[in-house]
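Protein in question quoted in full.
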Amino acid sequence: MNYAHFKVTTGLAYELCTEYIKKRNTEQLKIDELINKYYAMKGRSLVCGTCLEGLYFGAVTPKGWKKTKQFPGYCIPSKTKLGIEIKKELDTVRMPSAEKLARDLGCKPFFMDFDDGNQYCASIGVFQFGKTYYLESSKWCKPSTAQFPGIIEIPTSEWYKAQENKSKCK
């Protein structure tokens, strides 16, 4: 799939991105707390859609968890009493939806990729560097620059440069 890249510096689009990032950061703090509580691998979790499904552990699987065959070290809550309680904790995490952000920014909910002929749900990637948000979407499903004048299409090289600069600042 080919991508289109944008930056957002002002307006309603900026506010929508700010709200999305703030919610994502809040939910990530909850995930980090659960990782610490269960002594899971730092920075490793699996979010499917908006739900926290499981955590990654080393060679030992703690009580209340069961290994899956999908990924080495990846565990989900077991069906035991303890596992059910753990699942309730994981269910308190609700990451914001990248699909909803895409729709809010004027992307069509579904689109066809004319390069591969497949249909997809709209989704948008966003990260912040300084006071600017950078977006990535499919070139077939771009945010509405007419509806949101704060969204400016940029060359892919500018998007990669912002990502590189962001990683240097950590």
